[in-house]
Amino acid sequence: MNLNTVRSVHRPASAAEVGHWRDGYAWLAGGTWLFSEPQPSVDTLIDLERLGWPALEATEAGLDIAATCRVAELYHFVAPEEWIAAPLLRACCEALLASFKIWNTATVGGNICMSLPAGAMISLVVGLEGICTLWPPGGEPREVPAASFVTGNHANVLAPGELLRKIRLPASALKKQFAVRRASLTHLGRSAALLIGTRGAAGEWLLTITAATPRPVQIRFAEDPSAASLRAAIDAAIAPSGYFSDVHGTAAYKRHLSYHFAEEIRAELARAGVGP
Ligand SMILES: Cc1cc2nc3c(=O)[nH]c(=O)nc-3n(C[C@H](O)[C@H](O)[C@H](O)COP(=O)(O)OP(=O)(O)OC[C@H]3O[C@@H](n4cnc5c(N)ncnc54)[C@H](O)[C@@H]3O)c2cc1C
For the domain 176-274, what is the CATH code? Predict the structure, then answer.
């Protein structure tokens, strides 16, 4: 849609070129959300495209994903063999309700900064223990665990004008066994629940619950949990009123899915932990 309050579009070659941040400015990434509804408070778009950040950089430390990396680029990334959790990249891209047009335009950072419960890039980076690098306007970069980035439905830790620069998925997390479950009320619909479980070589166990709750919830165990201890941990982490209700499912439905999928993930990772 035409954003008829927008008077100018800047295409800086560096973040420093933006100068003083003021009300009315908005970062423009893929624009798939920005151009999908009126933005009456926005008069200036600052396009991230010309910043020229490399989309994906794989090193021994892990995978650095630029905020401007397109969902389609992430989908096509070919990971080193030892990163056995890498299929989660594709699984989470596929969990984003989107046509090919959205996939080729929407960015990973835009999805994370939207901070919607059904933001599948959030599920991915939280499930794989990502670290976000943030650039405050005029300040020193800071790092925030992806698990703490989203604070609620459409809410996050970004200060006005603060830029999400990249997300690092540590190699240690990419080398873990994983299990994933997702439900959506409609084929190609937004997720009602998206749960990711990982298990490290020493048995360390992590469950990430997303979409069913307004923000990601994580549950850790030092070793494989029993069904009862996992249930008790979910009871303790999320009150029955703590689930997210919307047109993609009631809170009660999403709560039911969360327990059901958590148990399936527990059983799958327990089998994987036994080895061949
Ligand atoms: C048909 C359709 C289906 C969709 N399905 C889903 C879905 O299933 N799940 C979901 O979560 N969303 C969905 N969306 C919403 C949206 O398109 C996605 O969240 C998308 O990933 C946003 O990315 P973008 O690059 O287009 O962001 P933009 O629209 O460019 O920006 C989104 C917001 O993030 C800010 N922003 C972008 N990049 C940065 C950055 N690096 N640092 C700081 N702020 C930044 C922008 O200022 C803006 O406020 C859908 C949209 C459409 C039109």
Answer: 3.30.390.50
Q: What pLDDT does 187 receive?
A: 74
* Mean pLDDT computed over every residue of the chain: 95
SS in 3 state form for the chain? CCCCCCCEEECCCCHHHHCCCCCCEEEECCCCCHHHCCCCCCCEEEECHHHCCCCEEEECCEEEEECCCEHHHHHCCCCCCCCCCCHHHHHHHHCCCCCHHHHHHCEHHHHHHHCCCCCHHHHHHHHCCCEEEEECCCCCCEEEEHHHHEEECCEECCCCCCEEEEEEEEHHHHCCEEEEEEECCCCCCCCCEEEEEEECCCCCEEEEEECCCCCCEEEEECCCCCHHHHHHHHHHHCCHHHCCCECCECHHHHHHHHHHHHHHHHHHHHHHHHCC
CATH topology of domain 51-172: 3.30.465
Judge if the beta carbon of residue 163 lies within 6 A of ligand 1: yes
| Ligand 1 in reach of 51 Cβ (< 6 A) | no
223 confidence band (pLDDT: 50, 70, 90): very high
Give the pLDDT of residue 30. 96
Is ligand 1 within 6 A of the CB of residue 190?
yes
